[in-house]
């Protein structure tokens, strides 16, 4: 099975992107906006046409307020406004479309889409698979290993594990350590006050890991690093906050996902479900032709 690849889609980021960028003139048969659904469908069809995946998982977020991380740190992602009901409705339609198209899709109340992706890749990597992660989210770069790639589809940018250090300031296996130091305001992960991205990179370049840094803090004041003595004092004071921040930033690999490769194979399109769904969402003829081409390719496979 060596050489197989699984495409892992961080769906929510593309639903949100479409929600903000597409005009709300896209409406369903009841006149309700479905712009996020149409934008997501266009993205998804482009992905399927370009990659023709033999194995795929489309992962959605359903845990923005019930994630296990919220139990560890109630302020996790508390800086984000709750998704409006209209957007939640469109998320539901996006999942319906994936299922009707025969694409394995999943959401979980305790685990985020990142965790589902990480767990699926962890399970399949042991069976000879590499991963193509479709997302612009830097957090997911921590999953990359030799043979994997990440693809920011909207900007058509791809990078490998070897390119993560130059792109984000830390090697893939140290991204969580880096975020433990620098924090991540997007997710409301605090990090260590007074330590920013450049300092986090310099510290990890020297000490290699957060654990080694905390074990060898006595060395830090003597480094040729601006503010080294102050950084050592901050780390002594906020040691537990750094470890908590790393825990929040670490993608889980034990979420409840399928471990059998066949569970990630696209299935034949469910026309009896898809046709009325496309009618309700008022999907146009151009997208329907693209859907039919995908359906024919899956049937032929």
- What fold name stands as the CATH topology of the largest domain? Rossmann fold
* Name given to the CATH architecture of the largest domain: 3-Layer(aba) Sandwich
Backbone structural class: alpha/beta
Q: In CATH, what is the homologous superfamily of the largest domain?
A: 5'-nuclease
Counting structural domains, the number is 2
What is the strand arrangement across the widest sheet? 3-2-1-4-5-6
- One letter per element, helices H and strands E, the order comes to EHHEHHEHEEEHHHHHHHH
Describe it for me?
The chain has 301 residues and is of the alpha/beta class. It has 2 domains: 5-168 and 252-300, 3-Layer(aba) Sandwich (Rossmann fold); 172-249, DNA polymerase, domain 1, CATH 1.10.150.20. The chain contains 13 helices and 6 strands. It has helices at 11-21, 35-51, 68-72, 85-100, 113-125, 164-168, 175-182, 197-207, 210-215, 228-237, 239-249, 271-281, 285-300; strands at 5-10, 56-59, 105-106, 130-134, 149-152, 157-160. Strands 3-2-1-4-5-6 form a 6-stranded mixed beta sheet. It is elongated. The protein starts with a strand and ends with a helix.
